[in-house]
Amino acid sequence: MNLSKVLAFCVILTVPVVSAVAQLRTPTLLVLNKGANELAIVDPLAKKVLGRVPTGEDPHSVAASTDGKLAFVGNTSGGKGMGSISVIDLVAQKELRRVNLGPHTRPHGLAFAAGKLYFTAEGYKMIGCYNPDTDQIEWLLGTGQGQTVLIAVNKEANRIFTANVTSNSVTAIDVGAGALASNPTNWNQTVIPVTTQPHGIAVSPDGKEVWVAGRLDGHVTIIDAASKKILQTLDLPSWKAGERMAFTPDGKRVVIPNSGVDDNTGGGGEFVLLDVASRKEIKRILIGPSRHLEEVIIPPEGSVAYVAVSAENGVAVIDLKTLEVTGRIPTGKTPEGMAWANGS
Questions:
Q1: Among 286, 214, 211, 282, which Cα is nearest to 246's?
Q2: Check: CATH 2.40.50.140 for 238-344?
Q3: Cα separation, 236 vs 230, whole angstroms
Q4: Which of these, 104, 180, 217, 305, is most buried using a 10 Å CB contact count?
Q5: Residue 20 parent element (H or E)
Q6: What does the pLDDT look like over 54-90, one tens digit per residue?
Q7: Where are the domains of the chain?
Q8: How far apart are CA 198 and CA 210, in angstroms?
């Protein structure tokens, strides 16, 4: 083979390799299509699905590793069968393994922090920690609270907060440092009574506050993370369900998908924007007639937000500068949980 043919052959081999690397480094939006038992890997700029990975039955939440290479999916099995966590390779777009948690565990909420995955086992009033490096469940800890559904963890992973729906409470857990961090029997738990059926929960970027939204009323409770004391309770009118919530990366605003105003008014799902400093509502953005709004995700650059609209089988895109809906991304059947995976 002459030199020109060798060079041409090398070019043919090189092109797809470069393309694959470029695709790996593109941040992606991860969307759980609960109705299809699958994870959709979405290019948020092109607004298209790059791939789909089968998960376990009835997945509710997804989290991504810090390097953006792995995704973790909580499979509830509808509360009837084996609860599990799917560990998914986002580059290869395939499930690597499935971690069985036991029957009726319902791993509903997930959070990734300091290299480990934290999860709720709603069926057992319990939370746990999974180490993907060792493929081991490192610990399980009971909350003693009804329907421990969602979990929020600070960046250092030394403070954990759970929303307990039927107990109308938040559990605050101080993990501690050093030897204390590896032994849950040494940790301190504080049960904080809050609004009716707390569901959406988030820790501020600076770790100082925890905000939790009621599922059935317009109350948002603000908790001091250090003292575990309630700082303020906000009363937002015309509320239907605060399923999830998120801080903007700069910590100045909180966003809450409101799954519909009062049934008597005939309104639809809204995107509620709150100012953290003043504790005031800034604006409500109508997403559409659907009342089924689920997860909200704000990427690190902070200019847009993505909201899962389950009844529309897609995701709404909101510009956080103009405060308008700027697009829709069809993702699949009944999207619920979402996460952001940074390119490595």
A1: 211
A2: no
A3: 17
A4: 305
A5: helix 3-24
A6: 999 999 999 999 999 999 999 999 878 899 999 999 9
A7: 238-344
A8: 12
